[in-house]
Amino acid sequence: MEALKLTAKSSNNITSLNPKTNKTEYTQLNEAELLKLFPQSRYFQIHFQHLHDNADEIKAELAECKQISSQLNAKLDVLMQLFTQARF
What pTM, to 2 d.p., does this model score? Predict the structure, then answer.
C-alpha cells in the first residue's frame, strides 16, 4: 500500500494527493489525530539547541577567518612594498 503525499492542511481536514490516481483526497481528523501531525516540544528544543551550537561554531570560524584575512592583508602590503621598491 502506497502512502498518500501530504500537500495541505486546513482546519480539521487533511488534503492529500494520491500518487496512484493523481487525485486530491480529503480526510477528516479529530483533534487528537491532528495534534499528532505536529512535532512535539522536545523536537523544537533539540532543533534550537542544534541551531545555537551551530551559531557558536560559525562565530568561532568567522573570527578565525577575520584573523587569517588580516594576516594575509599584512603580508600583501609587505609584498606590494617589495614589488614597488624592486621596480625602481
Answer: 0.45
